[in-house]
Amino acid sequence: MPSQLAAAKTVFISNASDENESDTIKGYDRIYAAIQKLNRFTIVFTPNDADLVLEFGQIDGKYSKSNGDKEVEFRQRLRIIDPHTHILLWSATVPNTGRLTERDTNNEAAINRLANYLQKITTQTSRTAK
To answer: What is the number of domains present in the chain?
Structure first.
């Protein structure tokens, strides 16, 4: 794994969602809160002050009907970018499917899975990089 993952202490959170304005703001707030809960990084407000850029986004929305309920399928994506070289260091995507009425709950769960994955790969890397 790239050594930047283990060494990082600061992150800038970037929003790369395809969603409408209110969903984008809600998603960003959830992502920000999930990263704060990790107690792993200090969140900074400019990419130049960050060790890593965490680019989160919700992509590929698809709708279908099943038994009269509207179903939705999205994917939540995390891309980890070196802000100095602009090189993609790592990425992960988690599916997010379910009834449209459960969309907010499912989005939050998917974002939390990505945050937990981020915690896992940055702490595993720090153990193996020594």
So the answer is: 1
pTM: 0.81
Confirm whether 49 is domain-assigned: yes
- Of 63, 65, 55, the C-alpha closest to 27 is 55
Q: pLDDT tens digits for 73-91?
A: 778 889 999 999 999 999 9
Let me know if residue 26 belongs to a domain.
Answer: yes
| 25-37 per-position pLDDT tens digit | 787 888 899 999 9
What's the distance, CA 61 to chain centroid? 16
Taking only Cα atoms into account, the Rg of the chain, rounded to an integer number of angstroms, comes to 16
Give 73's strand partners. Answer: 62, 97
Instruction: Judge whether residue 129 has pLDDT over 90.
Output: no
Assign residue 82 the CATH number of its domain. 3.40.50.800
